[in-house]
Design brief:
The protein is an alpha+beta fold and about 325 residues long. The chain contains eleven helices and twelve strands. The chain is about 35% helix and about 25% strand. The longest helix has 21 residues. The radius of gyration is 21 Å and the shape is globular. One of its GO terms (molecular function) is ligase activity. It comes from Methylobacterium cerastii. Keywords: Ligase.
């Protein structure tokens, strides 16, 4: 697919420097200064201010309106999922460096005393922590597949789900768009190859129109997931060659390295085979999803329309808040 760059979009421009500072403040610093994000002391882990949240909530509602007529089943999972299900998913084959596990204290009273002594001395206190049966959700759709599999074969028309979850990926960064914990809104389609590819095409059009209506410069480009290691590079090449993944990119940090704000993914029969999800005729189900990075879209809006929400273009505000 050719890039769908919007010729009517304005060029990406750096934000003006604040006051009379000799060096312009970074975009991340400006977000902190205005209270859109709140420092926690950990790169990529931030609190969200009220204005920031109002945009996230409006975007979430906008996505709901776009998909309302499709009749998707709405499910909201917590930000943790079953470790056995996570292991079965195959995520560790491709992204071991991004995974996060939940550990908890499992020691006795003596171990507790050691823990407190280590905390008091500023030393590592995690020796008696053990991995629980919960891992941090890497993508909103991952807890869904075992749930769908447990229901048995799909109906002839397949299934469609509406998901949202906080997700975790261990990639600390000072780039505001690369958060370690973030919210992902997804629609997931299960069915025949024809059904899921048609779903993806519909959302490619809807997602592109939505972002253009929000006044954002964009391009839809072939992409690949950040698979780990040498084998991962081969998987990434295959993913691109087969056109399995497209991303809607918006310049936020720079024009040279735009930020993926939406992704459109065709998994083929990977999850259907992994979870033994069958179509009504007995064939292995195929799946596809569209994912919206709610924080990333919010950051793109702040970058291009300014940090003062009241000064945003009227048509953009109308799209979000009516």
């Amino acid at each position: 697919m050719d890039s769908l760059a919007d010729p009517t979009s304005t060029p990406f421009e750096a934000l003006p420097s604040a006051g009379d500072e000799a060096e312009p403040r970074s975009f991340l610093d400006r977000l902190f200064d205005r209270g859109h994000l709140v420092r926690t002391g950990i790169d990529g882990l931030y609190g969200r201010g009220g204005d920031f949240e109002s945009v996230v909530e409006a975007l979430d509602a906008l996505v709901s309106r776009l998909g309302a007529a499709d009749g998707a089943e709405r499910i909201r999972f917590p930000p943790g999922m079953s470790r056995p299900a996570f292991e079965r998913s195959g995520y560790l084959k491709g992204f071991p460096n991004l995974a996060g596990t939940v550990h908890s204290f499992c020691g006795d009273e003596a171990a507790h005393a050691r823990l407190l002594a280590c905390v008091e001395a500023g030393k590592d206190w995690t020796e008696d922590q053990a991995c629980t049966d919960i891992v941090l959700t890497p993508a909103a759709c991952y807890p869904l597949y075992p749930v769908a599999a447990a229901r048995g074969p799909l109906p002839a028309e397949g299934l469609l789900f509406d998901l949202q979850s906080y997700c975790f990926r261990h990639e600390p960064s000072v780039e505001p768009t690369r958060m370690q914990m973030f919210r992902m809104r997804e629609y997931v389609r299960m069915g025949s190859p024809e059904q899921v590819l048609a779903f993806r095409e519909v959302w490619l059009e809807r997602g592109t129109a939505m972002m253009r209506d929000l006044g954002l410069p964009l391009a839809v480009d072939p992409a690949n997931d950040p698979f780990f290691g040498r084998a991962g590079r081969m998987l990434a090449n295959n993913q691109r060659m087969q056109g399995l993944k497209f991303e809607l990119n918006v310049p936020v940090n720079s024009t040279e390295q735009p930020t993926a704000c939406l992704s459109f993914n065709y998994h083929q029969d990977h999850f259907g085979s992994t979870w033994e999800i069958g179509q009504a005729d007995g064939a292995v189900a195929h799946t596809a999803c569209v994912g919206f990075g709610l924080e990333r879209i919010t950051l793109a809006l702040l970058r291009h329309h300014g940090l003062d929400l009241a000064a945003w273009p009227a048509d953009v505000r109308k799209q979000l808040w009516g």
